[in-house]
């Protein structure tokens, strides 16, 4: 597996109507953007979709916005041979049958291997909680394998 052939998946959540210049700059070059809810801006949703293909879910503050029928409370899809599940709340993620589970809501970044898969919460680039500051997550994947996962400080 060649790292040059890897796809870059940038994972964000809880932007709450504000896309900082630091975040937008970090997202440039992504092959896929995953947003784990609380976008709270139709304009921000459309702007993210101009950077890279976007998979997003509804957060607890998104019910008044119209992102289109493809944005629901849970998203399940395959990308680069990996099975993804994305939900705003960790409790709404399936416990089996996925390689990468993504959630948000807590505004606290965390990326851990659980069993044979990954659980990723990118934190929040807008309103972080805890002492870490603004964050997002970045994953490199190729041929059905996760090559790396890191939390990016913005």
Categorize the overall geometry.
globular
Radius of gyration: 14 Å
Number of helices: 2
How big a fraction of the residues is strand?
35-45%
Q: How far apart are the termini? A: 29 Å
Q: List the uncertain runs.
A: none
Please, what is the average pLDDT?
96
Structural class of the secondary elements?
A: mainly beta
Q: List the strand order in the largest sheet.
A: 3-2-1-9-10
Helix content: 10-25%
Order of helices and strands, N to C? EHEHEEEEEEEE
For the secondary structure, the number of strands is 10
Summarize the main sheet. Answer: 5 strands, mixed
List the helices and strands and how they pair.
Elements: E1 7-12, H1 21-27, E2 32-35, H2 42-51, E3 54-56, E4 74-79, E5 82-87, E6 100-102, E7 109-114, E8 117-122, E9 135-142, E10 145-153
Parallel strand pairs: 1-2, 2-3, 5-6, 6-8
Antiparallel strand pairs: 1-9, 4-5, 7-8, 9-10
Salient structural properties:
mainly beta, five-stranded mixed beta sheet
């Amino acid at each position: 597996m060649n790292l040059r052939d890897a796809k870059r998946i940038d994972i964000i959540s809880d932007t709450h109507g504000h896309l900082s210049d630091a975040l937008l700059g970090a997202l440039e070059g992504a092959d896929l953007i995953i947003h784990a809810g609380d976008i709270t801006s139709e304009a921000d949703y459309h702007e993210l979709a101009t950077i890279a293909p976007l998979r997003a879910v509804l957060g607890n503050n998104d019910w008044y916005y119209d992102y289109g029928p493809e944005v629901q409370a849970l998203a399940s899809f395959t990308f680069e041979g990996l099975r993804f599940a994305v939900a705003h709340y960790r409790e709404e993620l399936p416990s089996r049958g996925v390689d990468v589970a993504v959630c948000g809501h807590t505004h606290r970044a965390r990326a851990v291997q659980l069993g044979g898969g990954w659980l990723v919460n990118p934190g929040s680039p807008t309103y972080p909680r805890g002492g870490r500051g603004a964050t997002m997550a970045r994953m490199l994947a190729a041929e059905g394998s996760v090559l790396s996962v890191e939390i990016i400080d913005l």
